[in-house]
């Protein structure tokens, strides 16, 4: 039986990731990058779902593609709430405007939030208590990863974008009461999903964004690492394939602009 080109490409990418990483130039003055294992499930054009495993750098741009939702987070789908770990490419989720969109990609990674990496960096999680943002918002306690962004604007960021709502990293909502930082000393599995276009979905009664690398992604990553990064996504060929951002979002002290 002939293997579909799209399936062959996805399988080849998993192998090429390690080869590309070996070939990527490493400046003599920088410390060797820590590596991490990333699990990926992708919907191919022929309707097949392929699962691949990648060894890639533990850099923010890579980790942010995986570190949004913790195991047990309930995503609203056309058939009702579904745990993020059970959601698969090909399933349909409900977006903010009430439409149903197909999941094209899901990624997961296991890390220890409280453990420092080679650069002394930790990956704190954010715990959101039940009803913090109103009745059933969230429905029960939620633990979100460092890459998760909520639709909303905390008081200290209301000067951005004319006071309109933006997509904001969950850590910006931490107040020491209803929203608190947590760094478990044991491994935690985190997930993220990508649709055909950037969207806002409902998870545990809250509005979170789907994955998008941001409009500044091209400037954040070298050409050699870009190839390794793109190999994580069987459904795209270039960074432009992620499309425009749905709305402005806060991150790294600034608001990313919407691209046409």
UniProtKB/TrEMBL annotation:
What InterPro entries has UniProt attached to this entry?
Answer: Hedgehog/Intein_dom (IPR028992), Hint_dom_sf (IPR036844)
Q: Which residues form the Hedgehog/Intein (Hint) domain?
A: 67-214
- Protein name per its UniProtKB record: Hint domain-containing protein
What is the protein's species of origin? Ruegeria haliotis
Traced from the root, the source organism's taxonomic lineage reads:
Bacteria, Pseudomonadati, Pseudomonadota, Alphaproteobacteria, Rhodobacterales
